[in-house]
C-alpha cells in the first residue's frame, strides 16, 4: 500500500511536526490497521492495534500521532453535530478524555458560533467544560462573577 499523503492531517492543531509527518506519510496504512482492514505483521503493529483498542498506552510516535489525530477528528465531528443539529453533548464526552480533545471541541464550537450565533452552542460549551473539570481539584482557581479568574 503506497501512501501519497494523508491529506486529512493538514491543519490539525496539537500534532508535533514529527507526529504530523507520521500521520501524513502513513495515515491510510495506520487507519487500515486501526480499523482491522489490515492484520498486524510485526510486534510494533500489534502494539499499535492494542493502543487503538485502548488496551495499552501509546509509546511510539505513530501511536501518539494516531491517538491525537483521532481525538481531534472526533472533536470536529461532535462540534459539527452540536452546531448544525442542535444536538446535546454526547455521553462519550467524559473527563477521561485528554485536554487536547476538549480544547479542540470548544475551539471548533467557538468558530461555528461566530458564523451562526446559537445559544445552544454556549450551553454545550459550558457542559463540555463542566465534564472536563468534573472531579478535578478546583482550589487553584477562584472564579469571579465577571468571568475572569485569580490564581490563589
UniProtKB/TrEMBL annotation:
InterPro entries: DUF413. It holds the Pfam family DUF413. It comes from the Bacteria. Belongs to the MaoP family. This is Macrodomain Ori protein. It comes from Candidatus Seongchinamella marina.
